[in-house]
Amino acid sequence: MGVGFLANLSMPDAEIFMRRMLPLFLLVLCNASIAEDDASDVAHAFSRAANFIYYTGFEHSSVTSAFSEKELRILDSNREALNLMIREALGVQDSVGGAMLTAHFGIDKNLDLLRYQILEPGRAYGWEGSYMAGEDWYMSDEQYVYHSRYIEALESITGKPVHEVIELTEWERNRINEVAADPPNEHWEWAMWISRKLGL
């Protein structure tokens, strides 16, 4: 099957094809450790990891519930290949699964991308849970379902609260302060919430 095969696919089909093949490409590129495992078991573990990582929702089972002990051992033995997928996802989209695997395996190389996701308004709020009035309406962690998961991962890896880990640049601080001072801004709620989380 040559490269021309992809040219005959629609964009959605080509994307699905590449997402399904990516784990296999990574295993080859990173010289995956398959000495103790059947190659099909390794490929299956990485295929499941890809689904977990590229899923853009925030509803995820725990890592230990989503993967078997054998699958986690395979992923742990091939962290380099696993982390290429995690970083690819966290760099371009919401990836709660990527953050959870980062925390589970203690991959501190990804602190930069967790920081990036936390400081981007993104999907600023989830509006989950019961109705709340006043300030509680927008200051509750459960409203910021994506950011909260990224913060959990960062705090799990570092063992410190987020306000002790993230040191803002002058530009970042000014950006948050400007949005927080502008209630009509679509990201005002996020700016108010992240200001409190970072102790601004």
Structure summarized in a few sentences:
With 200 residues, the protein is mainly alpha-helical. It folds into 2 domains: 1-105, no CATH class; 108-200, no CATH class.
Structure description:
The chain is 62% helix and 0% strand. It contains 13 helices and no strands. It has 200 residues and is mainly α. It has 2 domains: 1-105, no CATH class; 108-200, no CATH class. It has helices at 4-7, 11-29, 39-54, 63-66, 69-77, 79-90, 96-104, 111-118, 136-139, 145-158, 162-165, 170-180, 188-197. The chain is elongated, with a radius of gyration of 19 Å. It starts with a helix and ends with a helix. The longest helix has 19 residues, at 11-29. Helix 7 runs parallel beside helix 10 and helix 8 packs antiparallel against helix 10.
Task: Lay out the secondary structure.
Elements: H1 4-7, H2 11-29, H3 39-54, H4 63-66, H5 69-77, H6 79-90, H7 96-104, H8 111-118, H9 136-139, H10 145-158, H11 162-165, H12 170-180, H13 188-197
Helix pairs in contact: 2-3, 2-6, 3-5, 3-6, 6-7, 7-10, 8-10, 12-13
